[in-house]
Structures are given as C-alpha cells and as structure tokens.
C-alpha cells in the first residue's frame, strides 16, 4: 500500500465543501452565514500516534487503513504533525535502533506537543519495564529534552512529567494549560485558539453567571470565566477534572466551581430530583445563570440535557459532529434561534469538522 496523499493545493476546495455541508445542515433553522476559521495547511496537528512494524530487522513508524491491520503504511516524517514531532521522529527511531532496552517489544509510540514547545513521548510495550529500560529512558529524555511515559500492562513509568504545558492567547491574554498524557486535548492548536477567541467574543461581557457542561481540562472555561460573574463547570472524566482543577489554580480563576458530574446528573441536581455529595458546599440557588456553554462528545446532547439547556437565554454550543448539532438545534428551535455560526477546520483533509453556534431565546 502506498503512503496517503498529502496535497495542500486541495485545501481551499475541501474547506469549501465543509462550509457547504454545514450551511445545508443548518439551513432549516435560518442560520446566518458561518464564519470560517482556516487551519494551517501543514504541521498543524500537535498529537500523533504510530504503531511500530518490524521489517528487515528494523522497526518503522506505521499506520493502517481502517479495517486493515496487516498492511502497514510506513512513515519517516508526517507533514500534518507539528514541526516538533517531525524533528523528534528520526531521533527517537535512532535511539530505539541503538538500544535493546528501548526497542525490545516496543509496539506503539505516541507524541504530544504544544504550541509553546513542550513535548511528551509515550512508549508502549508488550513486556514489563525494568531498571535497564528506566535508565535508557532517562538518558533519552535528557538527550531529546522531552518527558517520557513508559506503558506496559498494568504499569506506567514517568520520566519527567506526565503532562505537557501549553500557553494559548485569547483577546490579548495568555492562559496556561496542563495537558495530561492519555487525556483528550484539542489536536490543532492554532484552530483551538481561534475557537476560544470566537467563543469569548460571542459570549461577550456578562453581569450574570455561566453554566458549562463537558468542560474537559478547562480549555474554554478559562477565557469564558473572564466574561462572567462566576462559572459552574461540570465534567465526568476524572483525569480531565484533575487537569482542569490544576489549570484553574495555575491561572488564578477563582470564580469557577468545578464538580465531577455528568450532564444527566447535573440535570437531576438542578431539578432537585436528588442531592449529590459532590455538590456539597455549592449553593445552586445562588447562581444567576444567563448562558450555558456546551462542548459535548460526537453523540451530541441527550434529549434530557437538551431540555436542560432550553431554560437558558443563551446557548453557546461547540460541536465536533454537525449532524448531532443539527439534531439538537431541531429540538430547541421552537424556543431558540441561531444568531451566530462558525466553522473551525480542526481536521484538514478529512470530512471531520468542528462548528459553533449561538442560540438565543426567541
């Protein structure tokens, strides 16, 4: 199998197709023309994951077509990945070729980098990690000036930190983020900054409070918290909650309360269906919510959560799946109308897109 084609000359055409698709999906709701936020044509992806495939006595970086685990596509570089990942790839390959301690039963490599220059490499093994591996990994981390995480069944060894540190700029202010190994982070840093700036501008300065569902590591929480009186944010993933708490503390965001609740559980709490010990010390009745911000998974909001958002004057919605976004808007369209719309090209050269809408009460 040949290497996939990478052709930046096709970028404008594929972006136009995405815009047309989004316009078509939102046409039933009389949505305005979307703002379009482009991606860099190459070196935009801050994360990359490769399987390793042994051939002619050498392990190679490899990927596979969906549904085919036996026909590798080899890579020496990866044009869509960050320049930092491309610089690290040959150095890491040379290191495992020179070290049995690093290469023995190594089957997967993951890179995580940031716009601010931090990097973490995860090495995955089909064997226990021993003292020889740790010594070799420590030497490699020092040589490459990266953090390294070694993973084997039931064990994880960390050389340096198990997270990278990012700095993103929104409306002239810099926000610092810890992004943990193994947790979700936005893969396209440049477009992520554009998404944050759009959400910040669309929310506008408010004198009331914000409810945020699916807050993740606090990616949107930090800039949006500067626009409102206070924020109640929810997230169910324990690793994301821990990262968000650290990010709130690092940025001095003292007007945010974060609770580990699912959107469904928060709905029950707000409807006073049952109490939650995780809400101890938080007076829900003290909030004057004017807006809700949601960034749900690909499945979108479930019907009950969608009904919860209906009670707010303003719904700011970031979506990674325009089909489920349209379905959620259909449920809300009798009480809310789309007044702002945007397309964020997080994933160039694929059919995937990120979009955003502001819905305001009719």
Automatic annotation (TrEMBL):
CDD domains: AdoMet_MTases. Pfam families: tRNA_U5-meth_tr. The keyword Secreted does not apply. It comes from the Bacteria. It catalyses: uridine(341) in tmRNA + S-adenosyl-L-methionine = 5-methyluridine(341) in tmRNA + S-adenosyl-L-homocysteine + H(+); uridine(54) in tRNA + S-adenosyl-L-methionine = 5-methyluridine(54) in tRNA + S-adenosyl-L-homocysteine + H(+). Its EC number is 2.1.1.35. Keywords: Methyltransferase, S-adenosyl-L-methionine, Transferase, tRNA processing. SUPFAM superfamilies: S-adenosyl-L-methionine-dependent methyltransferases. PROSITE patterns: SAM_MT_RNA_M5U, TRMA_1, TRMA_2. HAMAP family: RNA_methyltr_TrmA (MF_01011). Belongs to the class I-like SAM-binding methyltransferase superfamily. RNA M5U methyltransferase family. TrmA subfamily. This is tRNA/tmRNA (uracil-C(5))-methyltransferase.
